[in-house]
């Protein structure tokens, strides 16, 4: 990659547009980037990195790239032209930044980061920039494809940071691994190592699963064969259960158990057959015993029934007579029921009539029905007259309510009259009190404007007094600072003049140090220098004198600034004393507080004035209202008295009429109720008398008919017929009893003549319980042997299936053991956890160690040239002392001193030696990383600082190596402020620092 042109605007310390022509600057192959500390030398490298990758080295945020010195209307951007991979490209980047906007509410808007990538093309004689991409993702892919470097690699191999490589040189293996892992992207070896570890765990898991399955199978086989293993004839020969890892032993053990199960199954079949035969015999015997017991029971029951039937036959003649009388009386049942019902109805009607007449007046209780009807009509007429007077009764009640309401209104009017009179009595005193209060508040409120003016004047006076006191303190501090700066300026000037005098005294030695053979002396002109002067010990150099003079100038400037600051403060103090006067601040604060309290009281009075005015107005309004209320109350009292008198007269007239109509009742309603109740009683009595007469006629007719019919049926009287009458169910029961006795007699006679029962009765009594016990025992033995046979069936089936499964699992065990052994060995070697890894290095550490060895070999080519073939970097595979971790060993670096033949730690190198070794290491790393990443040559390199630690000889050797880089068609930029380099390198880019931002000034060899 070759840089051609860089343009920055409002970037970092550069306030405006600055441009760098790398083609002109690198014409000699070597150029110097110099400037004061903080001027912005590193910002040039930041701009290159930002243009290519959109970020800067380190962790600085991109939103802080904009220059604080730049005008607000100047946008930040970086343009870089470069060549790589046979293409000339131009990239323009703008970071995210704020800019003034009239449309935004806050006055500023935010522009997002943008990028544009162009390529120089020359097609058919037409040359120009053609767009390639305009978004961040596509541009990033294009840049990485062209350069072949990531941002981290670019920052390490193009922008060589010497401080970082000095740290890398002295760091331990773990810290070196961080940088090497990032540069060489060895994450894939970590992933491979992790994959091997995971693969080992996976195969271990698979093997454990099969082993666990085998263990479970053996446990299940042992469980299924459990009863066999506890039998006396097999327990002695039982082999121990083998481990799951021994496939042959466990298979033989399972086969042995299966053979035992087959033998046990054959024995269970024989036992089951014997128990079935015994059970069938016991069952037949039990059935014969039950049959004999039943016959003996039937014979005994027949004899008992014969005796019972003979006992019942004794009362059958009387029963047949009662049955005949009952059947004849049954035909008279409807007539007898009618007589009974009519008698009951007659009794009920007579009782109802007596009860109805009891409720009548004494004079009407024994009256005939026609007389009762006349009395009923008279009651209806009286009720009609009373009903007609009901409206008059309602009017009487309404008049009473109106009189009561008028009395209440009269009392309320008298109360209102008394209340209004009492309030009007207090009115003169209330009016006088509120009038005086309103006058006092008006006077106080009128003082508010004057008090505000007093407070404003006191605030101004107090502010001026505080400013006076502050300036007094500042003036004393400024005077003391001026004295200190004057002493410091005098001391710096004395030190500078002393160094200058010492340098002039030893100038001969300084000039002699610059002489070389064949070069004319700048004093005498002689090309030979037989006895050059020697530099005095602690001889000050030009740089020491320049530094001392700079310190003197800085101190003098500080003294001038301090003096000017004190004079300004003295002038301001005098003006403040004139404005504030001599009054102390505390006294002014007291006066201000009193004025503020008085002002607050006046403001409170002014704010309460409208309320007081409104209160007085409300009182006057209430006075008018109370006066009107008193007159209205008098009028209401008079009106209520007149209306009450008229209504009372009308009520008295209605009272006499209503009293005559009520009689002994309290109200007309009660009188109407009395008349209605009496009419109902008369009506009920008439109805009851008519019902009783009708019931008596029906009872006479029923009795005559029933008597005649009873005589015809053979009963002398109705009472005889009623006595013979029985319930139909009882008659049916007697008839069925006689019929059933005849049937039972025939059945029992036949049973007692049956031959089987006669024979059973002659045999000894049967015992069904004993035969049942024998059958139950036989059935128990049969079930037990059947269960044993079923268990044997299940056991042989289960063991056969488990044996087949065991064979299948054992066939998987050996391949899994071999697979796990291989995966575990590879994982252990890659993780350095086995003695087979003789280097004790993890896989990634091994790869990084190889890369570090390549870097050391590439660095030694330049390190020997820069150290007169004294030093070599040696890669060490030893583990760091005291270091624990994953890397184990392999990333050590030591320095070999070929002059003494000894190896030592890199931390023992001096400052200049450390710089030389770091530079060689950085250049070697750049070569290896470039070859690893893309193999494309790096046309431009930057080396940042560190040259100030070199002596004259080492500096010359380093410059020779850099010249060799230039000879390889490379452009090398050195970032340094060492004065000697400015004399050695003609092509320079000076970064000059100003108050309003830094600027760039290129110096080409033709300008010097």
Uncertain residue segments = 232-236
Strand order, largest beta sheet? 2-1-4-5-8-9
Tell me the Rg in angstroms: 69 Å
Instruction: Give helix % range.
Output: 55-70%
Name the beta content range.
Answer: 5-15%
Structural class: alpha+beta
User: Could you give the distance between the termini?
Assistant: 28 Å
Largest sheet: 6 strands, antiparallel
- SS summary, helix count: 27
Q: Kindly state the mean pLDDT as a whole number? A: 79
Shape: flat
Number of strands: 17
Overview of the molecule:
With 1008 residues, this protein is an alpha+beta fold. The strands form four sheets. The protein has a six-stranded antiparallel β-sheet. Helix 6 (173-184) crosses helix 24 (843-866), helix 7 (187-224) runs antiparallel to helix 23 (768-831) and helix 10 (247-312) crosses helix 22 (755-762). The chain is flat. Residues 232-236 have low confidence and may be disordered.
What's the SSE blueprint?
Elements: E1 2-11, E2 14-21, H1 22-25, E3 30-35, H2 41-53, E4 77-84, E5 87-94, E6 97-100, E7 108-111, E8 114-123, E9 126-133, H3 136-147, H4 151-157, E10 159-161, H5 162-170, H6 173-184, H7 187-224, H8 226-229, H9 232-235, H10 247-312, H11 316-330, H12 333-358, H13 369-388, H14 390-445, H15 448-505, H16 507-513, H17 542-580, H18 585-662, H19 668-712, H20 718-724, H21 728-752, H22 755-762, H23 768-831, H24 843-866, E11 871-876, E12 892-897, E13 902-905, H25 911-933, E14 940-944, H26 952-967, E15 971-975, H27 979-984, E16 988-992, E17 999-1003
Parallel strand pairs: 3-15, 3-16, 10-14, 14-15
Antiparallel strand pairs: 1-2, 1-4, 4-5, 5-8, 6-7, 8-9, 11-12, 12-13, 16-17
Helix pairs in contact: 5-25, 6-24, 7-23, 10-21, 10-22, 10-23, 11-21, 12-19, 13-19, 14-18, 15-17, 15-18, 24-25
């Amino acid at each position: 990659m070759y840089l051609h042109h860089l343009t920055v605007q409002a970037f970092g310390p550069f306030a405006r547009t600055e441009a760098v022509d790398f083609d002109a600057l690198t014409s000699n192959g070597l150029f110097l980037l110099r400037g004061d500390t903080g001027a912005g030398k590193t910002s040039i490298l930041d701009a290159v990195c930002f243009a290519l990758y959109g970020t800067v080295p380190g962790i600085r945020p991109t939103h802080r790239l904009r220059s604080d010195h730049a005008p607000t209307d100047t946008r930040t951007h970086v343009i870089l032209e470069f060549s790589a991979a046979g293409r000339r490209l131009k990239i323009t980047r703008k970071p995210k930044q704020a800019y003034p906007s009239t449309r935004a509410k806050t006055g500023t808007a935010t522009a997002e980061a943008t990028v544009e990538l162009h390529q120089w093309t020359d097609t058919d004689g037409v040359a120009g920039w053609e767009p390639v991409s305009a978004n961040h993702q596509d541009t990033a892919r294009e840049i990485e494809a062209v350069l072949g470097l990531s941002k981290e690699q670019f920052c390490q191999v193009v922008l060589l940071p010497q401080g970082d490589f000095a740290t890398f040189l002295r760091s331990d293996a773990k810290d070196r691994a961080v940088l090497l892992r990032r540069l060489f992207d060895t994450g894939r070896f970590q992933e491979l190592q992790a994959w091997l570890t995971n693969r080992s765990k996976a195969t271990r898991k698979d093997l454990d699963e099969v082993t666990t399955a085998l263990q479970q199978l053996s446990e299940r086989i042992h469980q299924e064969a459990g009863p066999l293993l506890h039998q006396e004839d097999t327990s002695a020969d039982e082999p121990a259960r083998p481990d799951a890892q021994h496939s042959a032993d466990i298979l033989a053990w399972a086969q042995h158990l299966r053979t035992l199960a087959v033998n046990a199954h054959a024995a269970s079949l024989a036992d089951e057959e014997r128990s079935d035969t015994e059970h069938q015999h016991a069952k037949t015997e039990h059935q014969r015993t039950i049959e004999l017991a039943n016959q003996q029971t039937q014979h005994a029951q027949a004899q008992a029934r014969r005796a019972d039937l003979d006992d019942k036959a004794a009362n059958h003649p009387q029963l047949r007579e009662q049955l005949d009388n009952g059947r004849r009386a049954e035909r008279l049942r409807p007539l007898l029921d009618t007589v009974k019902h009519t008698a009951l109805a007659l009794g009920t009607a007579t009782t109802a009539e007596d009860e109805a007449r009891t409720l009548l007046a004494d004079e009407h209780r024994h009256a005939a029905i026609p007389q009762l009807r006349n009395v009923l009509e008279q009651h209806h007429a009286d009720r009609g007259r009373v009903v007609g007077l009901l409206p008059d009764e309602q009017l009487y009640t309404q008049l009473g309510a109106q009189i009561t309401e008028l009395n209440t209104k009269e009392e309320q009017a008298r109360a209102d009259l008394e209340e209004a009179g009492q309030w009007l009595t207090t009115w003169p005193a209330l009016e006088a009190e509120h009038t005086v209060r309103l006058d006092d508040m008006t006077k106080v409120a009128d003082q508010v404007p004057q008090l505000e003016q007093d407070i404003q004047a006191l605030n101004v006076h107090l502010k001026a007094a505080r400013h006076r006191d502050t300036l007094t303190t500042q003036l004393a501090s400024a005077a003391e600072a001026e004295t200190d700066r004057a002493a410091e300026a005098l001391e710096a000037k004395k030190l500078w003049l002393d160094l200058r005098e010492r340098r002039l005294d030893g100038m001969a030695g300084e000039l002699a140090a610059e002489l070389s053979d064949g070069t004319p002396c700048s004093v005498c002109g002689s090309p030979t220098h037989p006895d050059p002067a020697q530099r005095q010990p602690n001889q000050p150099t030009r740089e020491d004198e320049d530094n001392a003079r700079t310190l003197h100038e800085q101190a003098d400037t500080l003294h001038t600034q301090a003096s000017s600051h004190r004079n300004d403060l003295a002038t301001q103090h005098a003006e403040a004393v004139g404005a504030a006067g001599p009054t102390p601040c505390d006294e002014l604060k007291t006066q201000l507080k009193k004025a503020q309290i008085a002002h607050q009281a006046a403001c409170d009075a002014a704010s309460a004035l409208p309320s007081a005015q409104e209160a007085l107005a409300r009182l006057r309004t209430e006075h008018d209202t109370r006066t009107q209320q008193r007159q209205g109350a008098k009028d209401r009292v008079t009106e209520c008295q007149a209306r009450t008198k008229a209504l009372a007269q009308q009520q008295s007239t209605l009272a006499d009429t209503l009293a005559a109509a009520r009689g002994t009742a309290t109200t007309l309603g009660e009188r109407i109720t009395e008349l209605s109740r009496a009419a109902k009683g008369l009506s009920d009595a008439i109805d009851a008398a008519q019902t009783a007469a009708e019931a008596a006629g029906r009872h006479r007719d029923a009795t005559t008919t029933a008597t005649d019919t009873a005589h015809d049926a053979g009963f002398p009287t109705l009472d005889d017929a009623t006595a013979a009458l029985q319930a139909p169910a009882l008659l049916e029961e007697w008839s069925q009893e006689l019929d059933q006795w005849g049937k039972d007699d025939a059945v029992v006679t036949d049973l007692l003549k049956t031959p089987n029962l006669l024979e059973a009765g002659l045999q000894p009594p049967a015992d069904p319980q004993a035969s049942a016990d024998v059958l139950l025992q036989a059935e128990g033995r049969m079930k037990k042997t059947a269960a044993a046979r079923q268990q044997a069936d299940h056991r042989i089936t289960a063991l056969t299936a488990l044996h087949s499964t065991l064979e299948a699992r054992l066939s998987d065990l050996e391949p899994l053991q071999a697979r796990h052994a291989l995966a575990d060995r590879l994982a252990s070697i890659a993780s350095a956890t086995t003695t087979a890894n003789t280097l004790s290095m993890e896989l990634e550490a091994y790869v990084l160690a190889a890369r570090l060895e390549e870097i050391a070999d590439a660095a030694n080519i330049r390190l020997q040239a820069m150290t007169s073939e004294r030093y070599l970097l040696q890669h060490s595979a030893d583990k760091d002392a005291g270091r624990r971790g994953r890397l184990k060993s392999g990333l050590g670096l030591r320095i070999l001193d070929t002059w003494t033949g000894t190896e030592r730690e890199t931390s023992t190198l001096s400052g200049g030696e450390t710089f030389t070794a770091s530079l060689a290491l950085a250049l070697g790393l750049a070569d290896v990383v470039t070859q690893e990443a893309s193999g494309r040559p790096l046309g431009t390199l930057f080396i940042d600082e560190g040259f100030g630690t070199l002596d004259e000889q080492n500096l010359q050797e380093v410059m020779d190596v850099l010249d060799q880089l230039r000879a390889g068609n490379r452009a090398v930029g050195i970032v340094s402020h060492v004065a000697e380099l400015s004399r050695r390198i003609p092509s320079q880019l000076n970064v000059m620092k100003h108050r309003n931002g830094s600027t760039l000034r290129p110096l080409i060899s033709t300008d010097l």
